[in-house]
């Protein structure tokens, strides 16, 4: 199969997070990635910015530079469009390509709100192209290992689950310059949608869909400082309208592996954990045992495997077993690639081989659940 002609939206040398350059590009430029995809175009806010990115990342000179989503959509040589811009720019940059029938891969969240997410999904459905959403946790070796433990009956039927995460942005009351949008609800990219959305999707991938979702959001620290990452100095203060603590309760749907009315408790806070405590603790209680997933310093399971520990407590023997899972076993690309690129690469591999991957229809369902997280929320 010939490599898929691909356009990148948001590949910028100046972006603070540089997700496209750190997660997507290492895969796409690897020998394995190049066997399945070929970068033929870049779209940024201007043609000049796209040219600068092409030069900065040493892409081939024939790579096309675009400054307009309409021009990109009109390029008939492009089959796949990949978008990893700021969330509130997803809609405006990919709508034309979806309408034109191109395949489109957008990082999560799909759009700044459910309304725009539904409009994108409708446009893609009418256009006829394939879609993929960047819910990478669904294909993570951790997720697959946890599903296997549950399906193999290691802990019996699931009775309940609790997820506790702590730590996001640059601190409890500060953000890095260039990421102020994390504190702006209208942008749609914040700890509730990004951290909460990824984690809640991963939980449901392992245990099944959640229902009867109720939430208690709170904004504990409305004012945050903005810090310059180069000098570590405060450059501004900003008022937030995004919760920095949210607690969610729900029920898991009954299934062959989950009892009726199994409870789900989800708590996430922007503040780092108390000194000495873990940044992430996820427990899955079963009839015969309990699974515990922990990470000392990082609260996002979908992005990285280093530091994650999985343990199973067998109630009958009262012994705790550490369960190994290996990202490398699922990874066919460059072994030296950063972990985020390997997880993203697993999605790319599934898309290229027409395997199972999350779509924009899946994204709309998660957007609707996120709405439940913040139902009635007023800053």
TrEMBL record:
Domain Gfo/Idh/MocA-like oxidoreductase N-terminal: 21-134
Domain of life from the UniProt record: Eukaryota
GO MF, one example: nucleotide binding
Bilayer-spanning residue ranges: none
InterPro entries: Gal80p-like_C (IPR055080), Gfo/Idh/MocA-like_OxRdtase_N (IPR000683), Gfo/Idh/MocA_oxidoreduct (IPR051317), NAD(P)-bd_dom_sf (IPR036291)
Domain Gal80p-like C-terminal: 141-294
UniProt protein name: Gfo/Idh/MocA-like oxidoreductase N-terminal domain-containing protein
Originating organism: Mycena citricolor
């Amino acid at each position: 199969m010939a490599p898929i002609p691909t356009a990148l939206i948001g590949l910028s040398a100046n972006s603070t997070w540089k997700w496209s350059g750190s997660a997507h590009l290492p895969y796409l430029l690897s020998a394995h990635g190049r066997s399945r995809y070929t970068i033929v175009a870049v779209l940024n806010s201007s043609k000049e910015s796209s040219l600068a990115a092409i030069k900065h990342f040493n892409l081939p000179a024939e790579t096309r530079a675009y400054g307009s989503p309409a021009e990109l959509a009109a390029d008939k040589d492009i089959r796949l469009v990949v978008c990893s811009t700021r969330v509130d720019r997803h809609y405006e940059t990919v709508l034309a390509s979806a309408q034109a029938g191109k395949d489109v891969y957008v990082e999560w969240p799909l759009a700044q709100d459910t309304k725009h997410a539904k409009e994108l999904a409708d446009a893609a459905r009418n256009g006829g192209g394939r879609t993929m959403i960047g819910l990478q946790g669904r294909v993570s070796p951790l997720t697959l290992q946890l599903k296997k433990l549950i399906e193999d009956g290691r802990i019996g039927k699931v009775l309940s689950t609790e997820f506790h995460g702590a730590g996001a942005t640059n601190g409890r009351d500060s953000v890095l310059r260039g990421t102020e949008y994390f504190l702006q609800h209208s942008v749609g990219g914040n700890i509730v949608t990004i951290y909460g959305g990824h984690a809640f999707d991963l939980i449901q991938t392992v245990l099944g869909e959640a229902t009867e979702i109720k939430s208690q959001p709170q904004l504990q620290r409305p004012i945050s400082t903005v810090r310059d990452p180069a000098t570590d100095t405060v450059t501004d203060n900003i008022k937030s309208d995004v919760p920095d603590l949210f607690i969610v309760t729900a029920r898991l749907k009954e299934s062959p592996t989950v009892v009726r009315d199994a409870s789900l408790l989800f708590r996430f806070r922007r503040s780092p954990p108390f000194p000495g405590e873990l940044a992430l603790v996820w427990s899955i209680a079963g009839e015969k045992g309990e699974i515990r997933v922990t990470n000392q310093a990082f609260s996002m399971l979908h992005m990285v495997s280093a530091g994650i520990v999985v343990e199973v407590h067998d109630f009958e023997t009262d012994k705790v077993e550490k369960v190994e899972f290996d990202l490398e076993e699922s990874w066919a690309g460059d072994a030296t690639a950063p972990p985020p690129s390997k997880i993203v690469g697993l999605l790319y591999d599934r898309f290229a081989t027409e395997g199972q991957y999350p779509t924009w229809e899946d994204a709309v369902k998660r957007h609707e659940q996120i709405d439940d997280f913040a139902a009635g929320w007023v800053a």
